[in-house]
Write a structure and sequence with these properties.
Elements (H helix, E strand, L loop, with lengths): L9 E4 L5 H12 L3 E6 L2 H10 L4 E4 L5 H11 L4 E4 L14 H28 L3 E6 L13 H21 L4 E8 L5 H9 L4 H11 L8 H12 L10 E4 L6
Parallel strand pairs: 1-2, 1-4, 2-3, 4-5, 5-6, 6-7
Helix pairs in contact: 1-8, 3-4, 4-5
This protein binds nicotinamide-adenine-dinucleotide.
The site of nicotinamide-adenine-dinucleotide (NAD) has 29 residues, from helix 1 and helix 6.
């Protein structure tokens, strides 16, 4: 049900093809925003266009500066940015190659640098806006096994979130990040299937991480993103919003 919580706002999202980004694009649209949803996967963007014709979809590679800059040209000034692109590398530091390190930092962190540099000037000119970045509880909030590289990138996301918050607070820019525990998504399914052991055992291990005894639905993260994007959170900036079913307690 829509309450028009984002009425009159224009939003741009990365990684909106599936999982949390997809749920958030739909939630922003439901709440009355003019939504520009992007993903590197063209087939997923076609699917989203069919599902919600009111959403404008774009194929954008968050790892490609020219692609992000072209999107900013096409979209123009926005009130809300949702930086969702990210990838989970599995393994200890001894199981990371230099290529793994570069890819994860490029996709999970440098993509924010690209999007912010492309869209922030327009947002400032417009008089302000809200930036919502996708971090994770698996960073300095909670050490998780086999997440050495992933956690490093998501801690960097939190640091960048706070730097932007402090640098642009006087220009009406708010910058916050979301730090989820385990969330149901296609890539979570891939991670469960890639682990040794049975599907059921592996899934149970992910469920057991959360004292609430379940995995979050992407829509639950989307509703936090709606709050942070909306004027309801107008006094909130520079925060790490933990939404993890009690995992980090
Ligand atoms: N699922 C979880 O348990 C969980 C927990 C905490 C944080 N997160 C973070 O949430 C974000 C979304 O994860 P998810 O699991 O909901 O979705 P997902 O991993 O299933 O989907 C990721 C999406 O990103 C897109 N993508 C990949 N490379 C891209 C690129 N170069 N440019 C643009 N888009 C690209 C893919 O096409 C896909 O649609 C990630 O940043 C992830 O780290 C997820």
């Amino acid at each position: 049900m829509s309450h028009g919580r984002l009425a009159g706002k224009t939003a741009f999202l990365t990684a909106a093809g599936q999982g949390i980004g997809h749920a958030t694009a739909l939630a922003f649209h439901r709440e009355g925003a003019k939504v520009f949803a992007s993903d590197v996967n063209a087939a997923l963007m076609d699917k989203l266009s069919a599902e919600a014709p009111g959403i404008t979809t774009l194929v954008v590679d968050a790892r490609d500066t020219a692609s992000v800059n072209a999107a900013a040209q096409q979209v123009g000034a926005v009130d809300v940015l949702f930086n969702c692109a990210g990838f989970v590398h599995h393994g200890t530091i001894l199981e990371t190659s230099e290529q793994d390190w570069d890819l994860s930092f490029d996709l999970n962190c440098k993509s924010l640098w690209r999007v912010l540099r492309a869209f922030l000037p327009g947002m400032i000119e417009r008089g302000g806006g809200s930036i919502v970045n996708m971090s994770s509880a698996a960073q300095t909030i909670k050490a998780a096994p086999n997440r050495a590289l992933y956690a490093s990138t998501k801690a960097a996301v939190a640091a960048l979130t706070k730097s932007v918050a402090v640098d642009f607070v006087k220009q009406g820019i708010r910058s916050n990040c979301i730090c989820p525990g385990t969330v149901q998504s296609p890539s979570l399914e891939d991670r469960i299937k890639a682990m040794p052991g049975t599907y059921d055992e592996n899934r149970a291990a992910f469920v057991a991480r959360q004292p609430m005894g379940r995995i979050a639905e992407p829509e639950e993260i989307a509703m936090l993103a709606v709050y942070l994007a909306s004027d309801e959170s107008g006094f909130t900036t520079g925060t790490e919003s933990v939404i993890d079913g009690g995992w980090s307690l």
